[in-house]
Amino acid sequence: xxxxxxxxxxxxxxxxxxxxxxxxxxxxxxxxxxxxxxxxxxxxxxxxxxxxxxxxxxxxxxxxxxxxxxxxxxxxxxxxxxxxxxxxxxxxxxxxxxxxxxxxxxxxxxxxxxxxxxxxxxxxxxxxxxxxxxxxxxxxxxxxxxxxxxxxxxxxxxxxxxxxxxxxxxxxxxxxxxxxxxxxxxxxxxxxxxxx
Length: 196
Description:
The chain has about 200 residues and is mainly alpha-helical. It has nine helices and three strands, in the order E-H-E-E-H-H-H-H-H-H-H-H. About 60% of the residues lie in helices and about 5% in strands.
């Protein structure tokens, strides 16, 4: 397979995108096509590159498949939503892995983008948020368990897994799940710690 190309500027099919979607802030958009990513502005954020990679995979890194994909993407809102939800899910998983402290803020931004005018307001904010998190829940559980085990200093302790399951049943997720499990396992009482 030939190398992935990054091209600064709008793609040749930009007039079709503008005609069909009329997206706000076109200077911030990124367009995957076959084995090429078109973008404007500065360097791509790594999480955006992960998002676009999902689209390239689904286009099978092929220009003919990419042409079919874009036609379907522009004509079918349900296909467009399905494709973007999958890409935003991977982007969110990447952010969870690389910068968990940004996860909550990032999820809000991603859900706002997915539910916004950029894609034709295809879903509510809450639906988009739920669909993005859908695939990331297992990752969040694994991360909470890993941090809890690290807090008690043992990889094999079943206590961590027990508390992950208990807090998950109560509806906790993401940073909230991780924090509660950590507090339970490490016997943290919630009082501020003074570092001298």
